[in-house]
Structure formats: structure tokens, C-alpha cells
UniProtKB/TrEMBL annotation:
The lineage of its organism: Eukaryota, Viridiplantae, Streptophyta, Embryophyta, Tracheophyta. Belongs to the NmrA-type oxidoreductase family. Isoflavone reductase subfamily. This is NmrA-like domain-containing protein. It comes from the Eukaryota. InterPro entries: NAD(P)-bd_dom_sf, NmrA-like, NmrA-type/Isoflavone_red_sf, PCBER-like. The keyword Oxidoreductase applies. The keyword Cell inner membrane does not apply. Residues 2-309 form the NmrA-like domain. CDD domains: PCBER_SDR_a. Keywords: NADP, Oxidoreductase.
Amino acid sequence: MEKSKVLVVGGTGYIGKRIVQASLAQGHITYVLQRHEIGLDIDKLQLLLAFKKQGARLVEASFSDHQSLVNAVKQVDVVICTMSGVHFRSHNITMQLKLVDAIKEAGNIKRFLPSEFGMDPARMANALEPGRVTFDEKMVVRKAIEDANIPFTYVSANCFAGYFVPNLSQLGTLLPPKNKVCLYGDGSAKVVYMDEDDIATYTIKSIDDPRTLNKTLYIRPKENILTQMQLIEKWERLSGKKLEKLNISAEDFLASMEGMDYASKVGVGHFYHIFYEGCLTNFEIREDGSVEASQLYPEVDYTRMDSYLNQFL
Ligand SMILES: NC(=O)c1ccc[n+]([C@@H]2O[C@H](COP(=O)([O-])OP(=O)(O)OC[C@H]3O[C@@H](n4cnc5c(N)ncnc54)[C@H](OP(=O)(O)O)[C@@H]3O)[C@@H](O)[C@H]2O)c1
């Protein structure tokens, strides 16, 4: 089967750059949107040029110019959007509605993957304020996609390792704790931790796969389903040092939101759903016809979290 041509929108972003790399690595003709709004951001420009060197095609377009988006979309079969969605960086999820309009007008797209890559927003209808904005906005984009009859795959990628693993899932740091670690409740909720490069690999594998058409693709490989306590124990084994555990009750954790800035409140809300409610694993994947990535693509040797943590020794 001929491989689809892919356009990555948001290709210089945190997950986007990995998706560009995975698309090239899996042999897709890969286009990356180049926006003139990047202005003087020399790092973005250099990254775009590095993609070009590796064979990517840069396509100029702007979210302020509908026709330019239509023209970009018309060159490919598949569009993957990795628009920003983390409040402490920037959050522009509903900007994708412009891309949905362009895809609708272009009429040629065989698959659209909107910017998701986290918890499944369809399962977060009862999420707390203000963090629920992430899920609500992703659902607005889903509705627009489905109203326009655009073929889709939604990728639910669970916890990005970079944000959740070396820090043993502590808020406000990306580095391993030295002496003490906060344990959410008794640390027993099952969480799924994923290396971002693996997320990109699975994502690209799904784009030409009829089994993922109009479905949610959950990335939940068995050995990466861990509790926070299991993650801490892995680090303790690797580092040879025991950490003092500070148990935080759900009430105290939620009360900690008081006085925080907006982005931090969003983060606390998301952590609450993940680590106290177990929202990533408290459902069976197949119950609504959804699919799981490591079952569809057993050939992917996904990164285990021991080996991810090893980098931090
Ligand atoms: N599961 C998890 O743990 C987790 C963690 C983080 C993020 N996520 C999800 O992953 C997705 C991507 O997040 P990210 O952190 O990778 O994003 P990011 O790096 O902050 O931004 C991605 C890209 O969004 C584009 N962008 C930002 N502002 C824009 C604007 N005003 N107009 C047009 N484009 C704009 C830029 O694309 P250009 O390349 O064109 O400049 C940027 O590179 C989100 O849906 C987020 O919720 C999940």
C-alpha cells in the first residue's frame, strides 16, 4: 500500500517535532507547516531547516489566512495537528477550528489527527474547573471534525514521560527528587507513562491503518501501566537511595489550588484526575470499539520506564 503524504501542523512543538521525525522515519512524504508568525524565533526556524535537511517539505501557511491553510492541506492525504495545549506553555486548542474549516473545504483528507495526545476528553465530562477547559476545548474540536464528516483518529497518549517520570510525578519540577517525594493518596492509582518518541511512532503507524479509522487509539502498553509507588520504587532501586514519602490526602491536594495561578490550578486538577481518580485506567479499552496501540503494533519495542529513568542517574 502506498504510504500517505502527511502534513504536520505544529511541527516545531514538543510532541510535534517527534511526530515529524517518526513520519520521516516511517517513510512518509512529510510536510511541515511553516508560519511567518514565528517571527524572530530562530530556534523554530533552525528546526524547520533541520527537518528539511532530513527530507521534509516546508509549506508556508498561516492561521490568519484560510486559503493558505486550504492550499497546504490539499498537498497531502493526512493532517496531524500538534497545536499547543499545556497552559504553562501556551494553549491554543480551539485555533484548530480554522484547520478543520480548511480540511473541510479542501475535501481530500483521508485522516485527521487533532491535537489530543493526553487523557481522553470524552471521558472527562465531570472534570474539575479550571482544568476541564483542556477537555472541553478538545471536545469542541472533535464535534467540528465529526460534524464536517472528516475521517479521524484520536490519540490518547496518557502521561508524557518527560513531564511525569524523572520527577516521580511531582508538580513544579522535571528533575528527580533528592530526599522527599509527595505520594498522591497511597500512590496506588494505575497510571500510564509513555516515552514521547514512542507516542510519535504509534501515532504514525495508525494513520494508514483501517483499524484506527474514526476511533480513539489509546496508548497503554502493559509494562508501562504503573502506580506512582511502583515508579518511585523503580527509581529507588536504580539510584540506591530511599526517599521519604509524604502522603497527601485528596482533600489537601485539592485545597493546595487555593492562591495558585491559573496554569498551576489546571495542572493540579489534571493530576487529581490521574493520581486520585485513576482516570487513565479505570475503564476497559474495547468497551466502545476503541483500540490499543501496543496490541495493534506489537513490533514496537516501547521504552520501559526503568530505562527511561536510567538517563537521570
Ligand atoms: N499527555 C501529556 O502528558 C501531555 C503533555 C503535554 C502536552 N500534551 C498535549 O499534546 C498536545 C501538544 O502540546 P505540546 O506541549 O507539544 O505543544 P507546544 O510545544 O506548546 O506547541 C505546539 C505547537 O503549537 C503551535 N502553536 C502555538 N501557538 C500557536 C498559535 N498562536 N498559532 C498557531 N500555532 C501555534 C506551534 O507550532 P509551530 O511549529 O507552527 O510554531 C507550536 O510549536 C496538546 O494537545 C497537549 O494537550 C499532552
